[in-house]
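As promised in the previous annual report, we have extended the structural survey to additional targets. Below is the entry for CSON006107 protein.
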Amino acid sequence: MGKFIEFLVREGGIQLESVRIAGFSLGGQTVGYVGKYLKGQLPVIIGVDPAGPLFSENSDDRLTYQDAKYVEVIHTNGLKLGYDKPLGHVDFYPNNGRTQPGCTNDLAGNCAHGRGLLYFVESITSEKGFWGTRCDSRDDITKDGCVNGDGTLRKMGGDPKENQIVNQRQVYWMRTNEEEPFAMGVQHGFWAKRCETRDDITESGCVNGDGMLRKMGGDPTFNQIVNQRQVFWLRTNDEEPFALGIAGIE
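The corresponding structure token record, generated without further manual editing, is:
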């Protein structure tokens, strides 16, 4: 596949900067091979529950955050068919990333493993979207949320053009529905999008930013301490109720 992409760039006139690739299960590890072959120059790789068996020990062959400029990973059946530890720049762990709601008697993990693909496919056209809450580490993620985290949100999957590069590796938790549509979105509250500086904030949004969200006001226990100063932009209604939910940052 790496050679084919090189051929398309050389003979087909496409720009490498426009190429995004995604892979599921063993394909989720294979896209790492492609990224390595292209020396990490691909803009975006998305690994959907990358295979765990034979990749769990120290291995130079598995997907890593160095395989593209932005590597996103969705974990749904870690410790069984999928790989459990963070691999990308951003790793999402729906429902703790090991078992999935609605997958009853799933001893082999096939249902939970397959949910990763269903979540990713739905994310491409979902109006609600799959929004994850940032946790401090993989060990802080449970099936019910983050033990420790800073309260910011990020959208999983979707249009790869929306996946912006982050300056540090991150992990996110989210809850999903038991059946389609799986995405639960974020409907209420004042949600704001993070911008790089005050000068990057305009009336219509951020000139530069990383796409992460944070809730303004509300329950003070939700907003946890952050390790760096941050600025956020949001839109409101003209009259009460002022809160737009996620629509306030789109």
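The chain has a mean pLDDT of 89. The helical segments are 2-11, 26-37, 110-125. These points will be discussed at the next consortium meeting with the crystallography subgroup.
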